[in-house]
Amino acid sequence: MGPPGKRCYAIGDVHGCARQLEDLLTQIRNDIARRPRKKTAIVSLGDLIDRGPDSRGVIEQFMTFAMPDISTHVIAGNHEEMLITGLTDDPSVLPNWLRHGGYAFCESYGLSAEDLMGVDGDTARTRILGVVPEAHLNFLADTVERVRFGDYLLVHAGVNPARPLNDQKSADLRWIRDDFLNSDKDFGAVIVHGHTVFEDVEHKHNRISLDTGAYRTGKLTAIRLEDDEQELFAAC
Predict the structure, then answer these.
(1) Given the DSSP bridges, would you call strands 202-203 and 190-193 parallel, antiparallel or unpaired?
(2) Is the pLDDT of residue 4 over 90?
(3) Backbone angles phi, psi at 191, to 5 degrees
(4) Which residues make Cβ contacts (< 8 Å) with residue 172, sequence separation at least 6?
(5) Most buried in the list 102, 108, 171, 197, measured by CB within 10 Å?
(6) Contact yes or no for 40/190 (Cβ under 8 A)
(7) Three-state DSSP class for 94?
């Protein structure tokens, strides 16, 4: 159940698919307009960036989305974590980040793969900071680890079944896979997550997976949580 008098839209991994995000946000706007006015949250489950063609466009859409009584929240995914860590703390992670979708992020800001291929972390850091607006980096850094919504817990990757919900580690929330996905445990909340691609939404008694692989399938998925209702939205 969602908390009384509130609704939430959770959006799966966007991965730079700005066209699908625009379609999905339009669907969400229209759905909100059809319904009684309530305090509403729109939550990205993380991995807004990388892999797809327009990370910049995705960031700008989230930064500028505005409706009365609507709040937006971005949960940090492992891709945001790698980028921000590389730019602020440890540039040595940037070459690995580039190989896992970061080139597409940089290309959306006009920095070609040729400008970055084979360079060390410090050089990559300097070149990325030279093209990405500070406001965009601040937006990606100003994220949350989780959002609790009634009986639901929204995270990026999942939770560690061996730990209580109030003692989860950031690494698990952003990176965990098999131990979480294969668990039938009652986690104390229904976990709404992304991170691992499935052909369609995986809806189990203890979790709902919304990562339908937009960057490779073209399908971006969201869910509305309201009272005891759950409704799916998709943009292709």
Answers:
(1) unpaired
(2) yes
(3) -90, 120
(4) 157, 158, 159, 160, 163, 180
(5) 102
(6) no
(7) helix
Number of neighbouring beta carbons within 10 Å of residue 59: 26
**How many of the other CB atoms lie within 10 Å of CB of 55?**
30
Phi, psi of 180 (to 5 degrees): -80, -50
CB-based contacts of 60, cutoff 8 Å, min separation 6:
136
| CA 14/CA 216 separation, integer angstroms | 11
Name residue, tokens 């986690």.
Answer: 187
Q: What is the helix (H) or strand (E) element at residue 208, kind and residue range?
A: strand 207-209
What's the one-letter identity of residue 213? G
Give Cα separations from 150 to 94, 160, 222 (angstroms): 37, 20, 18
Tell me which residue of 22, 36, 63, 1 sits closest to 233, measured CA to CA: 22
